[in-house]
Design brief:
This protein is α/β, with parallel strands linked by helices. Helix content is 43%, strand content 19%. It has 10 helices and 12 strands. The strands form 2 sheets. Strands 1, 2, 3, 4, 5, 6, 7, 10, 11 and 12 form a 10-stranded mixed β-sheet that branches. It has a two-stranded antiparallel sheet with strand order 8-9. A hairpin with a 5-residue loop joins β8 and β9. α7 packs parallel to α9. The protein is globular.
Length: 328
């Protein structure tokens, strides 16, 4: 079944060992959709190999357009390019190191199309190496300044109900394209990591919703580009992006209200990563975050009275999510 409402955008950087399987799984979807692969200046010959394979075995692939960038511009810019190139009402972002179950596209589209106030819907991501475990079940953000997926590493049969979340994980999520024109796209200052939390949180400020859809299932290799769950590159960039995100999305009064918890969150993470040998990377990330704040002052979401209730609801969630982070 074909549909002209959805375009699938796959950002790719040196994903040769994953991309072929990802695309072949999209060919098997019950709802066909055009695919745009935005390559971020890969150096692994993966795109060249893919083109040859698509020429030789065209029937094994969906309708694929490859857009090549000259250098690695980061996840945020790559998906923005793909979103801009798409000509459909919805855009489905998908990591290159994923394999989708056959009804993923259909079920994500069904979930987002039920309510015009829904900005994004994330899929249930299972770990490819241990498919009985959840990789992501939608992301929550808490007043400690931590983003987390409550289902991470839990049994795959859990988190079986559709739920509201702070943000959808952009590794496998559908977005209503028209809302980007109102709230802005993915912030390229993030480069990668937390850019999906940032745009989802921003949508919430504007009064939109983000959902998790458990019937849309994707298998995720995880850390296909960075190499591991914890590493210097990831932790430095995540720490920087988190400070920047807090500054950007919270009015001064909200930052002041949350400051004791935010500081506690920073201290706990500094200790945690120091024990893992990543303390320097985390600290450098905090310094980098201050630089991002200085550069991104014109990107701060301006407080508007009409959004006051949305801020209040978000603040209550931030506090509730502190408890959820520790008790599940």
């Amino acid at each position: 079944m074909a549909d002209n409402k959805v375009t699938i955008v796959i950002p790719n950087y040196n994903g040769a060992r994953f991309l072929d399987a990802c695309l072949r799984s999209l060919k098997k979807q019950t709802m066909a959709a055009p695919v745009i692969v935005v390559d971020n200046g890969s150096t692994d010959e993966g795109i060249k190999t893919l083109r040859k394979s698509m020429e030789k075995h065209s029937g094994c692939y969906p309708d694929v357009t490859i857009h090549e960038l000259s250098e690695n511009t980061g996840f945020a810019n790559a998906v923005n390019v793909g979103i801009e190139l798409s000509e459909t009402e919805y855009v489905l972002l998908l990591n290159n190191d994923t394999v989708a179950e056959e009804r993923m596209t259909e079920r994500l589209l069904s979930a987002i199309s039920k309510n015009d106030k829904v900005f994004s819907v994330g899929a249930k991501m299972l770990q490819m190496k241990e498919p009985h475990n959840i990789d992501d079940s939608g992301d929550l953000y808490c007043a400690l300044g931590w983003a987390f997926s409550p289902g991470r590493d839990k049994d795959g049969s859990s988190y079986a109900k559709r739920a509201a979340v702070t943000s959808a994980c952009a590794g496998a999520a559908i977005y209503r394209k028209s809302i980007f024109s109102e709230i802005g796209g993915f912030d390229e200052e993030h480069f990668c990591y937390l850019e999906d939390v940032d745009v989802g949180y921003r949508a919430r400020i504007y009064g939109y919703k983000n959902l998790y859809e458990p019937t849309a299932v994707v298998y995720h290799a995880g850390s296909g580009t960075s190499g591991s769950r914890h590493n210097e590159f990831k932790e430095e960039l995540t720490a920087a992006n988190n400070l920047y995100m807090i500054y950007k999305n919270m009015p001064a009064l909200q930052i002041l209200i949350n400051l004791p918890l935010l500081l506690a969150g920073i201290i706990v993470k500094q200790i945690y990563f120091s024990k893992k040998g990543l303390g320097k990377a985390y600290f450098l990330g905090l310094l980098g975050g201050l630089k991002k704040i200085s550069k991104g002052k014109n990107r701060k979401v301006l407080f508007k009275k009409k959004n006051l209730l949305n801020y209040v609801v978000l603040e209550l969630e931030l506090l509730i999510n502190v408890v959820r982070r520790f008790v599940g």
